[in-house]
Design a protein that fits this description.
Distance between the termini: 25 Å
Strand content: 5-15%
Helix content: 40-55%
Order of helices and strands: EEHEEHEEHHHHH
Length: 250
């Protein structure tokens, strides 16, 4: 069964199914109390009430304000953040201005999501964190102990933002471990007292060096891929990892 919904300007929009309207409400594209009516029916009732009668869960996000472009309500995203553009008209009411352009704000935004490997992170959020992260490492190398986990988390969310799996970060970690294992295995075959040239050509040494070289090349290749992906713009609309803060509309 199809329904229409009523905009603040008293315009009819639709027809859509209840499931589609509930999905829009969850993305903040419809206000919680939007009035809907069945096709061919003049009785307008709140979406949540109609959905409950049909046994459909309709969890509308909290309203955080109104769009200066179209005047419609703007809902918060599941991570509690306000979209960078209106989900109704696409108006960029915060297009990298004010605090969104603030380096420290974006760093703290990523750091507050310390070990959150779900959801998405914008390009600005990712590179703001990485810039301050590497400055901190240069000044105080032990900062890596505190900031490594959020660095991995924000990288995973950045890959999600462009539609790629965060498992690529895990692949880099495993390749680095294999490289260390290969190097240690090769060095462990050498005579501790005196290294001879022939020691480098034992089966164990050759296998260790081969494992190290292959793992190192894999780290470089995947690292370059991840670097390129982090430079890409956000994927428009929602993807399998959640809604986009930058481009709520598809």
């Amino acid at each position: 069964m199809l329904y229409y919904y009523l905009t603040p300007e008293k315009k009819y929009c639709g027809p859509l199914s209840l499931a589609e309207m509930c999905a829009m409400a969850e993305r903040g594209q419809l206000p919680p109390a939007v009035l809907v009516a069945k096709e061919g029916d003049a009785a307008w009732r709140p979406l949540s009430e109609v959905a409950a009668e049909q046994g459909i869960k309709c969890k509308a996000v909290p309203v955080a304000g109104s769009c200066p472009g179209c005047g419609q309500s703007i809902g918060l995203l599941p991570d509690g953040m306000l979209p960078l553009a209106c989900p109704h008209c696409g108006h960029a009411f915060r297009p990298f201005e004010g605090r969104e352009q603030n380096l420290w704000y974006n760093f703290t935004l990523a750091f507050r999501q310390y070990a959150k490997f779900t959801g998405r992170a914008t390009r600005m959020e990712f590179w703001s964190f990485m810039l301050i992260f590497h400055i901190a490492l240069f000044v105080f190398p032990l900062a890596e102990l505190i900031m490594l986990l959020p660095a991995l988390a924000v990288t995973v969310r950045r890959l999600h933002d462009v539609g790629w799996s965060g498992k690529w970060v895990l692949a880099v970690v495993f390749c680095k471990l294999f490289a260390v294992v290969g190097l240690v295995g090769a060095l462990s075959t050498l005579n501790d007292a005196c290294w001879e040239f022939a020691d480098f050509f034992t089966d164990a040494a050759v296998n260790g060096v081969a494992l190290f070289v292959l793992s190192f090349l894999a780290v470089v290749a995947i690292g370059v891929l991840i670097f390129v992906l982090t430079l890409c713009d956000s994927q428009r609309g929602a993807n399998q990892y959640g809604p986009s803060r930058k481009y709520p509309l598809v």
